[in-house]
């Protein structure tokens, strides 16, 4: 396994929303390839979406992480499949376009507590496969403005936006 391999848990929308996201970014995550970007907008979409394009249109459930020493991808897949059987369907309401720091995101306007509970189950359920956060990565993510609780989550879970600090986007 590559020392740079990272894993994450994302929700990938299907249907019209998935198609619109792919056209916005110029990348279809299901197909794993480039698609024509939306045109007719007074924006330089290729430049604006250069960074997020590589991730595809998705909602983050568990942020990217490196696997711990000795863990295998097959173990992680099995654990994810078992966890998926325990977690029921989660729905959210209307999505609102919001600026989150340096990027634009779709944020649900209802169902947030259910999303937060589901994400906490995933983070807790898969944490044993996550490698400890390297010191350099901790320093990079330990930004001014994090609360003490978020800083504690960064140390414990490898990401500051988990548990009650989770924000689906």
Describe the structure concisely.
With 169 residues, the protein is α+β, with helices and mostly antiparallel strands. The protein has helices at 15-25, 45-48, 50-53, 73-86, 112-126, 135-141, 148-157; strands at 7-11, 27-28, 33-34, 59-65, 95-100, 103-108. 16% of the residues are buried.
Task: For the structure shown, list the relevant keywords.
alpha+beta, 6 strands, 169 residues
Describe the overall structure:
The chain has about 170 residues and is α+β, with helices and mostly antiparallel strands. The protein has one domain (about 5-165). Helices cover about 40% and strands about 15% of the residues. The protein has seven helices and six strands, in the order E-H-E-E-H-H-E-H-E-E-H-H-H. It has helices at about 15-25, 45-50, 50-55, 75-85, 110-125, 135-140, 150-155, and strands spanning about 5-10, 25-30, 35, 60-65, 95-100, 105-110. The strands form three sheets. It has a two-stranded antiparallel sheet with strand order 1-4. It has a two-stranded antiparallel ribbon with strand order 2-3. Strand 2 (about 25-30) and strand 3 form a beta hairpin. It is globular, with a radius of gyration of 17 Å. The two termini are about 30 Å apart. About 15% of the residues are buried. The mean pLDDT is about 90.
């Amino acid at each position: 396994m590559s020392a740079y391999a990272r894993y994450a848990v994302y929700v990938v929308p299907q249907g019209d929303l998935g198609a619109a996201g792919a056209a916005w970014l110029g990348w279809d995550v299901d197909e794993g390839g480039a698609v024509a970007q939306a045109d007719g907008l007074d924006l330089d979409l290729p430049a604006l979406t250069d960074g997020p394009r590589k991730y595809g249109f998705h909602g983050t459930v568990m942020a990217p992480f490196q696997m711990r020493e000795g863990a295998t991808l097959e173990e992680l897949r099995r654990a994810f499949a078992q966890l998926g059987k325990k977690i029921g369907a989660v729905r959210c309401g209307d999505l609102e376009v919001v600026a989150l720091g340096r990027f634009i995101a779709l944020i649900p306007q209802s169902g947030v507590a259910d999303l937060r509970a589901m994400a906490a189950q995933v983070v807790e359920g898969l944490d044993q496969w996550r490698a400890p956060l390297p010191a350099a990565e901790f320093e990079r993510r330990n930004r001014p403005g994090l609360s003490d609780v978020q800083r504690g989550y960064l140390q414990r879970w490898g990401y500051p936006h988990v548990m009650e600090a989770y924000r689906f986007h």
